[in-house]
Write a structure and sequence with these properties.
- The structure is a single chain.
- By secondary structure, the protein is α/β, with parallel strands linked by helices.
- Helices cover 43% and strands 10% of the residues.
- It has a single domain, classed as Thiamin diphosphate (ThDP)-binding fold, Pyr/PP domains (Rossmann fold, 3-Layer(aba) Sandwich), CATH 3.40.50.970.
- The protein has 11 helices and 7 strands.
- Strands 1-2-3-7-6 form a 5-stranded parallel beta sheet, with helices on both faces.
- It is globular and about 50 Å long.
- The structure holds thiamine diphosphate (TPP) and magnesium ion.
- The site of thiamine diphosphate has 15 residues, from strand 2 and strand 4.
Length: 322
Amino acid sequence: MDKSIAEEIYALMVLGRKFEYAAKEHYMTGEISGFLHLDIGQEALSVAAMKAFDHGDVFTTYREHIMAMSRGIEPKAVMAELFGKSTGVSEGQGGSMHLFDPSHFFYGGDAIVGGHIPNAVGCAYARKFKESEHGVLVLFGDGASNSGAFFESLNIASTWKLPLLFLCENNQYAIGTKITRVAPFLEQRKKAEPYMRTMEVDGNDALAVYECIKEAQEYISKGHGPVFVEAMTYRYEGHSVSDAATYRSAEELEIWKHKDPIAQLKSVLQDRFELSSSDLDEIDKKAQETVDEAVTFAQESPEAGVETLYDHLFKEVNHVVS
Ligand SMILES: Cc1ncc(C[n+]2csc(CCOP(=O)(O)OP(=O)(O)O)c2C)c(N)n1
Ligand SMILES: [Mg+2]
């Protein structure tokens, strides 16, 4: 592992956590509306997976702000999207759950649990058909791995040997439902074992995630077919900002906070890569500045106008908006 990559991942994780807390704050003021799902506690997985999967396409879920920024989308454009502003990455039409940017090969952000997995299969089919050397990464939760679309996707991706990396972010909960109440085992990779190679990684260990996704990316790019990676992690906040997470114990949360991904990587940077406390303070300061600038940018940007309501529809509509 290169020091500069470790440092870059750390900086994005720090940025991500500050970004998420800022988003929560501006949701409470009413500047952000709709749904807001925070990724606090899961930053290692979101950042390191994006940095490792450095080519090809990405499909993901509604908990995707940090992933979008790690793929290279400007924090300003992400924040403005949460605010519903025209300068947002989806021109203010998508909101938090629909960050979409083809120029970064980032195809969402999807609100339908499991619904994006077949889209990723289709994209992987196109990659194979066009003999592209790159593949597709699809991220989804433990809950999504109970959907029919998921099983159908495993089946066809494996049969057609598609270049598709399934990455299950197992945070053990689907809203308030513990995974072991609705699946016969905690490890969701067991569902994929009959179909393809499976791997497991500690989702709170950023460097381990990076190495694992690199290996998986190489595997799918060489035409071996799909691979399934499972990363165990935990979210600190409720499912969305309107969820107080009363279905889990304070002790369970504390156990996971002791495995905090940012604190873990910080120790590695200090011990192995000899970053000083002033280097680390500088990273922190820059991240805060970036978040503050993103908030100001979002606040000052114009609303997505009502005249844009019918933009980007496949079908021509003649409705007149008054
Ligand atoms: C098809 C469908 N069913 C139900 C929902 C409501 N819903 C939104 S998120 C969610 C839980 C998903 O859990 P998981 O896949 O583990 O992802 P996590 O939120 O933990 O990241 C549910 C049931 C939905 N959005 N779409
Ligand atoms: Mg989950």
